[in-house]
Fold this protein.
Amino acid sequence: MNKHLIAAALTAASLTLAGCADESTAQSAPAQQLQPIDVAQVLVKPVQSWHTYTTRLESPQEVALMPRVSGIIDSIEFKEGDVVKEGDVLFQLDARPFAAVVASLKAQINSAEAALEQAKSEDKRAVRLLDRKAISTEQAQARTSTLRQREAQLSALQAQLTSAELDLEFTSVVSPIDGIISRANITKGNNILAGQSVLTSIVSNQAMYAYFDVDERTWNSSFNDVTAASHQTVVMQKVGQSDFAYKGYINFIDNQINSSTGTLRVRAVFNEDSNQLRAGSFARIKLAANSISDAIIIPERAIGTDLKNRFVLTVGENNVLEYKLITTGERYGALRAVTSGLNEGDVIAVNGPARVGPGMPISPQTVTIDTSGVAFTLLNDNAQLVAKQ
């Protein structure tokens, strides 16, 4: 009996000590620290859909400069890579052979004019003599025929002189357009052939064209009312750039759909400084649809990927993060439109699931989504043209 009482007392004492230890541990443990996370309310903005196309820039005017006469290059009158104006002398050929031809023809014309004067005088005398029956009709007609021959000879020589003077003028090879000149393909002292030797090339630098093909379905659904006269705005990005910094407009729409490809050829023109755009450059064109609709906008970095799905973390009750599947739309700089999965008023973790996950309680730090420098539509010309993508 005593043994049983002693055992019971020992058990009670042990339980009491364990309870005191648990209470002491609970009192000494610190309260759980919640992760501070930046959160923001989603934005609702009027947006336009963007369509992107690739192209290479083309100059409105490009000339492969060839001589009009054959000869020897006497001098080169331009600096390679310079801007030239229409009418500037670029190559000078040896003009002496052409000047000699001109001088010879002028001398022949002087002789022909003297012969013509003599033929006119003899024709007048023949008319007087014929009236007095002093010569026969055949003799008078022969003198008239000689006069006509002298007139024809003079006209032929004058035409030859005009051609020779043109050839002499063409020994100065001039620029036919304003633009930027390339290097000289043929140098001083070389013989060149008329219409065959390519001396250099010149491209116009006043504007640049960008041709691109829009598929028939997209054109009919988004741009069916667009004409060349409406000057539909486009923006462009060159290789190595992050912004679509160049603004242009559509100035040509082809007159038919290409039945082989189902596309419509469109041309945009960009009137930029000559040092900014170069013919042959690869470029990306963005064209905004005319229709405008409201869309939910969130930061691109707020979006996570889960296999084939995209999701965001929203702030639910008691500041616990929740997993939300979304469907994304157009990108606008560092922001992205969401077409389904979110509603106006939803609050999301703006930095995405990098440090947190669904079901985690957080300490929310409210921030504002930055939209500065981002154009959601092209209606406001003062806005910076479509930011980075």
Q: What stands out?
A: Residues 96-131 form the longest helix (36 residues). Helices lie at 2-28, 96-131, 137-169, 216-222. Confidence is low (pLDDT under 50) at residues 3-10, 12-30, 380-389. The CA atoms of residues 11 and 17 lie 10 Å apart.
